[in-house]
Amino acid sequence: MFELDHDLAQDIVDRTMAILPYNVNVMDSQGLILGSGEPERINTRHEGAQLVLANGRVVEIDEPTARQLKGVQPGINLPLLHDQRLIGVLGITGDPAQLRTYAELVRMTAEMLVGQRHQQAEQQWRRQRCDDLLALLLSDGGDSPRLVDEAQQMGLKPQLARTPYLFELAQEPASGQGVDSLSSWLLSRYPDSWCVSSSKSSLLWCRPASLSLDNPRLLEKLDGQGWNILRVAVGGQAEGLAGLRRCYRRVGDLLAYGRDILPDARLLTLNRYRLPVMLWRHRNDDALDELLTPLRKVLAKDSNGQLLATLRSWCDHDGQSQACADALGIHRNSLRYRMERIAELSGVDPLRLDGMLALYLGVQLLPHRSEPA
After folding, report:
1. How far apart are CA 282 and CA 276, in angstroms?
2. Which fold has domain 284-364?
3. Cβ distance 22 to 94 under 8 Å?
4. Are 250 and 277 in contact (CB under 8 A)?
5. How would CATH label the architecture of 161-279?
6. For position 373, what pLDDT does the model report?
7. What's the pLDDT band for 132 if we cut at 50, 70, 90?
8. Fewest CB within 10 A of the end CB: N or C in the chain?
């Protein structure tokens, strides 16, 4: 239920007195003055307002009547209505005969301000409730029929297939372009999206999977708008809330993997890094030591990082010798020598599928840095 407060009452007073040569008072539903051009009268009772509240009609007070009432001056007191409900009183000080001409216009303006403030409060409540619902829907207990039904009623469309994006922004954006403004920008341009922020530097955006989107171009556009985005992790299409929750966890791992292993990569997609991320998630398990042992033998003899750079390129080019040699800027014979050296040190043949896979997975768990050709 909407009620007048001091801020709204004083706003009505200030706006009205900017064009009227008379004092204005705004009283609540108990006759207490909340806003006034005479600050000393705020928080005092107005007997004229109490007459209006008791009778639900306009009350004019002339000089003789004012002398009989406490804390009252001559003027007109009008009921303030919102949705046909009496919520307060508007009082204009002066000769009633001179005030009648525009008293109704002043009341109309005041009621318009009340309506606008109520609408703003409703919108703010709705935004906050939607944020709370989204956080609950993405939590482990998010399949509650009551939550899903409320989400439907709020127009969130929980049944849509969605693709999650997890943005990591700079902690202190110099331009003021932070998480809230990014959320507003995305929601305004991509209908039926969800945005959930867990911190000042993190934003989860779940766009409808039916939307076609060029991810590099989106990142370029966001850069042009002034957002300092460090990196973004893009998941796959998720069906239903359970699928979206799983995918949300995956993009969280993907973002952390990129921060740890690929610090210079700003756009990470789950389709590209799904297997490395799965292994990285278990990076502290003893079983991974066996996977990394052959690669560690190579690194122990690779003081200048040349063999690791070669192995990365070999994996990036799917074992295609000419493409790998061209990317490294070396002759195929030099590439063959390096691959033989890798096989000798690691005890694993990178020319065989199982050997290439073992070395590939090990490489994906090493932090990436610039390496010589």
Report:
1. 10
2. Arc Repressor Mutant, subunit A (1.10.10)
3. yes
4. yes
5. 2-Layer Sandwich (3.30)
6. 45
7. confident
8. N
